[in-house]
Amino acid sequence: MEKELRLMKGNEAVAEAAIRAGVDGYFGYPITPQTEIIEYLMEANPSQTTGMVVLQAESEIAAINMVYGGAACGKKVMTSSSSPGISLKQEGITYIAGAELPCLIVNVVRGGPGLGTIQPAQSDYFQSVKGGGHGDYHLIVLAPASVQEMADFVDLGFELAFKYRNPVLMLSDGAIGQMMEKVYLSPQKERSKVFPDWATTGKPATRERNIITSLDLDPNGQELFNRKLVAKYDKIREKEVRYEEFQCEDAEYLLVAYGTSARVCQKSVQLAREQGIRVGLLRPITLFPFPTKRINELADRVKGILSVEMSAGQMVEDVLLAANGKVPVWHFGRMGGIVTTPEEVIENLKSKIIGG
Amino acid sequence: MTEEIIIAGFGGQGVLSMGKIMAYSGVMQDMEVSWMPSYGPEMRGGTANVIVIISSERISSPIIKRFDTAIILNQQSLDKFESSIKPGGVLIYDSNGITRHPERKDITIYSVDATEEASRMNSPKTFNMIVLGGFLKVKPIVKLDNVIKGLKKSLPERYHNLIPMNENALTRGMEIITEVQKAK
């Protein structure tokens, strides 16, 4: 079937894509700048069409635990929020990771810490890729850089979540959530009527009881489980790295940026090349797993790397690890809800890398 | 072809919806578009602005600081964005309520007295369509019939009876826009 063309906000695209992906349940609580997701779903009222449940929970904590419950039953369930709300969800997220359950969590990031601001930021990188909740776990983290990807990553997110029995986080930001672009929407999928064999769907006489838990009081058993998780994350690191390159072929200098910053940096590449500076851009699409290997390869060919992020410098730590001392690596980024301009990126590339 | 536009004025003047119709028109003409509103505190009673990019190529940054065209609908926005127009670019403004007129010499300036015209036409709500008409006259990047198609897409069906009125306003805007200064 042909894809349908619409002009939509990123947040609306997530909501429409969720309906079309055959999601069983959305549980959320409103917060700027992602409230359009729940607004759109409430208005679309998919319980009348696909049977998808859309529920405004009493709090973020309730919403993530509803996701935990739905996921334990093998359903396709999701939630969304923005930074302060995602912090509230962290207990539920680590339990879901510990119980190895699939689900999709969308974070439309705003500036922090605390209540911060309602404007776009990328200051939740550490929280997203380095844990967030307690314990040794990883989320699979997808970073959309367009409205199209906010729609596409709903489907991709669930695919990866079920493949690895692991929660997936879509790490967007207030700019992509609020802007409108063209988006091609996939045709409506049926909601699944079959559930994975691990799901708690009621015990028939033919099999043992399925148990979903994140608790094991026997340290040997828990360590065995931790090793199993490590093996899973290694497999994800090996198989699921996604990134996009812009004009890296002949680049002397490399920018690394994701999401909105990657869009800004595409413009910087264009403008820099007009000035005769050969710059390329590597855009990580997955933040966990991170394109470590590719950055390490590119570090052999470039003179320096600038990591651009709307934060005080978080992803730059992973870029530094990837470059492994081969070339100088610096960070540049605005904070507090201010989006970096393409010109500022070039100025910083010149002052920190080229002239540095 | 890439046209980078900022539309700025008071909240309630139809700034965001004008941008939306522009973006929809671009879609109808099979072009790439982005619509990036300035949202948040600025929407609540203060100034409102939106960046619209229409391009035949994939759009890089939806957030930019230099514009090919600025459509300015109040004094605060003129003060804020006059310096952001690229040399040789275009400024379109409604002189109603403007106390300090534009001073740049290296841009082409047009005035479109849309406030006055809308009240003369007895349809103040079509104000933004008059301005859009003026823009399309000087920058015919999208065809008028694609704008009408865009209007149909962005207006809920119950308002489709208002389309002829809007079309009329677009045409009127094209007629009344006046060149004030050529870029030096």
Which helices and strands, and how do they pair?
The complex is a heterodimer of chains A (356) and B (184).
Chain A: E1 4-9, H1 10-20, E2 25-28, H2 35-44, E3 53-56, H3 60-72, E4 77-81, H4 83-88, H5 90-98, E5 103-109, H6 125-129, E6 140-142, H7 147-164, E7 167-173, H8 174-178, E8 180-185, H9 219-239, E9 243-246, E10 253-256, H10 259-274, E11 279-284, E12 286-288, H11 292-299, E13 304-308, H12 315-323, E14 329-332, H13 342-354
Parallel strand pairs in A: 2-3, 2-4, 4-5, 5-7, 6-7, 10-11, 10-13, 13-14
Antiparallel strand pairs in A: 1-8, 6-12, 9-11
Helix pairs in contact in A: 1-2, 1-7, 3-5, 10-13, 11-12
Chain B: E1 2-10, H1 15-28, E2 32-37, E3 47-55, E4 67-72, H2 75-81, E5 85-93, E6 108-111, H3 114-120, H4 127-138, H5 144-154, H6 163-176, E7 178-181
Parallel strand pairs in B: 1-4, 4-5, 5-6
Antiparallel strand pairs in B: 1-3, 2-3, 6-7
Strand content of chain A: 15-25%
Q: Spatial order of the strands in the main sheet of chain B?
A: 2-3-1-4-5-6-7
Q: What is the assembly state of the chains in this entry?
A: heterodimer
**Distinct helical segment count of chain B:** 6
Number of domain modules of chain B: 1
Give helix % range of chain A: 40-55%
Largest interface: A-B, 24 and 22 residues
Radius of gyration of chain A: 21 Å
Q: Mean pLDDT score of chain A, rounded?
A: 97
**Structural class designation of chain B:** alpha/beta
Query: What gyration radius of chain B follows from the Cα positions, in whole Å?
Result: 15 Å
Termini of chain B, distance in Å?
23 Å
Helix content of chain B: 25-40%
Question: What features would you describe in this structure?
Answer:
The complex is a heterodimer of chains A (356) and B (184). Chain A is of the alpha/beta class and 356 residues long. Helix content of chain A is 40%, strand content 19%. Chain A is built from 13 helices and 14 strands. In chain A, strands 3-2-4-5-7-6-12 form a seven-stranded mixed beta sheet, sandwiched between helices. In chain A, strands 9-11-10-13-14 form a five-stranded mixed beta sheet, sandwiched between helices. In chain A, helix 2 links the parallel strand 2 (25-28) and strand 3. The N and C termini of chain A lie far apart (54 Å). With 184 residues, chain B is of the alpha/beta class. Chain B has a single domain, classed as Pyruvate-ferredoxin Oxidoreductase, domain 3. Chain B has six helices and seven strands. Chain B has a seven-stranded mixed beta sheet with strand order 2-3-1-4-5-6-7, with helices on both faces. Strand 8 (180-185) of chain A pairs antiparallel with strand 2 of chain B, so a sheet runs across the interface.
